[in-house]
Hints:
- This protein is 34% helix and 16% strand.
- The protein is of the alpha/beta class.
- It has a seven-stranded mixed β-sheet with strand order 2-8-7-6-5-3-4.
- The longest helix is centred in the last third of the chain and has 22 residues, at 261-282.
- The chain contains nine helices and twelve strands.
- It has two domains: 22-258, Aspartate Aminotransferase, domain 2; 261-356, Aspartate Aminotransferase, domain 1, CATH 3.90.1150.10.
- α1 crosses α6 (243-259), α2 (46-63) packs across α6 and α7 (261-282) runs parallel beside α9 (344-356).
- It has helices spanning 18-27, 46-63, 78-89, 102-111, 228-233, 243-259, 261-282, 307-319, 344-356; strands at 7-8, 69-75, 94-99, 116-122, 145-149, 169-173, 190-194, 204-210, 287-288, 299-303, 322-323, 334-337.
Amino acid sequence: MKYGRTFNFSAGPAMMPEPVLEEIRDEMMNYRGSGMCVMEMSHRSKVFQQIVDEAEADLRELMNIPDNYKVLFIQGGGTLQFAMVAMNLMKNGKAVYIETGAWSKKAIAEAKKYGEVIIGASSKDKNFSYIPDCSDLDIPEDTDYVYICENETINGVTWNTLPNTKGHVLVSDQSSMFLSKPCNVADYGLIWAGVQKNVGPAGMAVVIIREDLIRGDLDPKTPIYMMYKTHADAGSMYNTPNCWAIYCCGKVFKYLKKLGGLEAMNQINVDKASVLYDFLDNSKFFKAAVVKEDRSLMNVPFVSPSAEQDAEVVKATKAAGFDNLKGHKSVGGLRASIDNAMPKEGVEARVDFLKKY
């Protein structure tokens, strides 16, 4: 680590790759001879249009996105997408949601405003510490879509096997595991991800949506910004987009390509997560909160013997130069988020400290 930077274990906004930050720094005052910073640049300029076009092209290459899917860069984050998904996809007014933690619960609450929400499966019975079996869901024929949060940031569970939707559209919130491993986009009807975990600065979501799901027959009262069709028809440039986030994300896309793509990123994530999980599984003081087969590579919740000791650990780690180990306020405990940009040395340093503690 350079520049006196800390190992930031926050779930988001999370660390960004240092080579990307250095490149952004070097272009801050004068982007490629334009005489201005990207933050000052007109979104209607040829220079910025090239930035957004390159970002989309690089993301398509990274994820091997089929031609019949649109890539949209939409302001806001998860809270906005909870509503947009339901507003745009609930044609029959019915959807199946799988309840696996805090973020799927929030999505469920928002979707209920727009139609009938069926909880197809839930892991609430064991404090969201596992992914329920979804190989034979009871899905009504007129269901518009099946919704999952593919990686629960707060509860630390992840899907390793997608649910059997029995031919229905699969919608996935991939926010906290986006671009952390290969993804077969054709398995989904819609993927969305807030970018502040693995890709860039807060304030934007990437939406990858199959073209046949983009509707023009929504309720006339639907705000124009809340229609996917608005963004698809305008190439994400209907209004002033989050130019800075698009620029930064584009840099990360190129960085991931240079790294070897999502297969290489996945191997890096497996290696560094194993350092922390191996320690927790062999510790007599700390304990991982999630069953082994459903553990997230991105977010690792764990506990000490008591809430008081959890608080002491957080205080001690801050003094040692680490940050954001405290578990989410809704669940307590401890949590280390080790998103894409967290280096293995950061995880090793954290484990070293916990061993001494």
